Amino acid sequence: MPNLTVDIAPGRKNSLVLKNPVMPASGTFSWGIEFARHFEIEALGAVVSKGVTMAPRGGNQQPRVAETPAGMLNSIGLQNIGIEACISEMAPLWARWDVPVLVNIAADTVEEFGEMARMLDGVPGISGLELNISCPNVDQGGIEIGQDVGASARATRAAVRNTDLPVIVKITPNVTDPVALALACESEGAAAICAINTVLGLAIDSRRRKAILPRARGGLSGPAIKPIALRIVYDIAKAVRVPVIGCGGISSGEDAVEFLMAGATAVQVGTATFANPRALLDTIEGLEAWLRANGVADVNEIVGCALPAPTVAGTA
Ligand SMILES: Cc1cc2nc3c(=O)[nH]c(=O)nc-3n(C[C@H](O)[C@H](O)[C@H](O)COP(=O)(O)O)c2cc1C
Q1: pLDDT tens digits, one per residue of 257-310
Q2: Cβ contacts of 192 within 8 Å, gap of 6 or more
Q3: What is the pLDDT of residue 313?
Q4: Taking all residues of the chain, what is their mean pLDDT, rounded to a whole number?
Q5: Distance from C-alpha of 193 to C-alpha of 131, rounded to nearest angstrom
Q6: Which of 172, 271, 274 to mutate to test the pocket of ligand 1 (most atoms within 8 A of CB)?
Q7: Which of 25, 116, 221, 292 fits 271 for a cystine, CB–CB 3.0-4.6 Å?
Q8: Is 185 among the catalytic positions?
Q9: pLDDT above 70 (res 314)
Q10: Alpha carbon of 98 to those of 36, 93, 263: distances in Å?
Q11: Which residues contact 283 (CB under 8 A, 6 or more apart)?
Q12: From the CA of 27, how far away is ligand 1's center (Å)?
């Protein structure tokens, strides 16, 4: 059986060694607890929580989703129970699992990212943080911070200074230069970069002559965004030294292989789970089958194999 173990926070005080490189994408797996009733949650490399905010949120007005060709638009608006209930109600359940849980945090301000990181530091059941500086569906924080290189760097610094947990920063694709964002976050101590969050889109209801979603814009996800996600993972992986976690349109082992080849050390499966609740397990099994069929003994061997060979100064 090939080795599937990967380390997504090498050299950090608290490393994040995963038994395989496959985890859910935030917001598509709820708290994980509901899924634990239906399948072997500990088969996953990690669990990623839905986005948590300082105060509980009710989310945006309905409808919050619209189906599109090869994907969907969502405008959930970070509906969640708030950080205190996450710590008191969810973390004790997570602590019983033999799978690391990463908490996805969304703050309104740079300072609040630091405050939330401090509150989650050392909580049993929480193994890492994913900073959501890329949510397109809220008025404050989110993409406002994530589209600004300086603010993204400051949010990363605020979180990293307030916790020993590995801090993964999740990047928006809705900028001209996602690599600049990734480099800024890496330089402020991000343990890994997750790419990508949803791509801004719009759907119109021609009968009602208006946008389907009440806020008009929504975040596009699913197979439609896979080539965009692959391109951004590839570009970021060429530039940074920390691990990259690929996300966007992944639904199979073959998709996972492509992201690993483009430079991702691990992958997240999101929208695919809505159509196939076993998509995460299928991705793990498909990845393992691909490695076996291609005589690859260790999944790390294919990470970045499609990236251009580094040019040595003076030889280019
Ligand atoms: C319904 C829904 C809710 C989401 N909620 C969050 C969230 O709370 N935090 C976050 O960082 N990303 C959130 N996302 C973005 C996903 O984690 C992921 O980045 C995106 O959907 C692309 O992956 P996919 O094509 O596999 O779905 C959400 C996506 C969807 C579809």
Answers
A1: 999 999 999 999 999 999 999 999 999 999 999 999 999 999 999 999 999 987
A2: 8, 9, 16, 166, 168, 169, 242, 243, 244, 245, 265
A3: 63
A4: 95
A5: 10
A6: 271
A7: 221
A8: no
A9: no
A10: 12, 11, 27
A11: 22, 250, 251, 252, 253, 255, 256, 267, 269, 272
A12: 5
pLDDT of residue 229: 98
Residues 7-16: what's their mean pLDDT? 94
Q: Pick the catalytic residue: 86, 135, 194, 247? A: 135
> pLDDT tens digits, residue range 238-263?
999 999 999 999 999 999 999 999 99
Query: CA 301 to CA 3: how far, in whole Å?
Result: 10
Give nearest CA residue, ligand 1 atom 22: 248
Q: Among the atoms of ligand 1, which is closest to the Cα of residue 247?
A: 23
Using alpha carbons, list the distances in angstroms from residue 21 to 17, 230, 232, 246, 303.
9, 16, 19, 10, 11
Q: How far is the CA of 26 from the centre of ligand 1 (A)?
A: 5
| Helix locations, the chain, DSSP H | 33-36, 83-85, 91-94, 110-120, 142-146, 149-161, 178-187, 226-239, 253-261, 272-275, 279-293
pLDDT score at 312: 66
* Band (136; pLDDT cuts 50, 70, 90): confident
Coil vs helix vs strand at 36: helix
As for ligand 1, residues whose beta carbon falls within 6 Å of it are: 25-28, 50-51, 74, 76, 78, 104, 132, 135, 170, 197-198, 221-222, 225, 247-250, 269-272
Residue 65 Cα: closest atom of ligand 1: 1
Tell me: pLDDT of 85 over 90.
yes
Which domains are assigned to the chain?
Answer: 6-59+79-198+224-302 (3.20.20.70)
